[in-house]
Amino acid sequence: MSNSDGGGGCSASLVASSFRRSMFLAVVGGEIASVVGVSLAYVYGVAAGGSIVVAAIAVYASVFVLRSGAEKKSKIYSVFRTEERKEVEGVSADGGER
């Protein structure tokens, strides 16, 4: 069993919409960090604890970057959608009069 307190738990709180989903994502994130960390420790001959922490940080950073990128993308799209819908009385979308 992994400790999902590090990268998994914090990462889950960034994207989860409910407590149940947050717990599920925390376990998944913790397991991913644990497996990747132990694998890196085996391959490179380093301490397992430190490599698990590095993997947890990588999981958190990945989720943070993907989430902030998705938020920026959705904000950009929402700006374009709202500007397209705005109409001024007597003026059409191409700038000419009706």
Automatic annotation (TrEMBL):
Keyword Transmembrane helix carried by entry: yes
Highest taxon listed in the record's lineage: Archaea
Membrane-traversing stretches: 48-66
Keywords for the protein's UniProt record, in alphabetical order: Membrane, Transmembrane, Transmembrane helix
Protein name: Uncharacterized protein
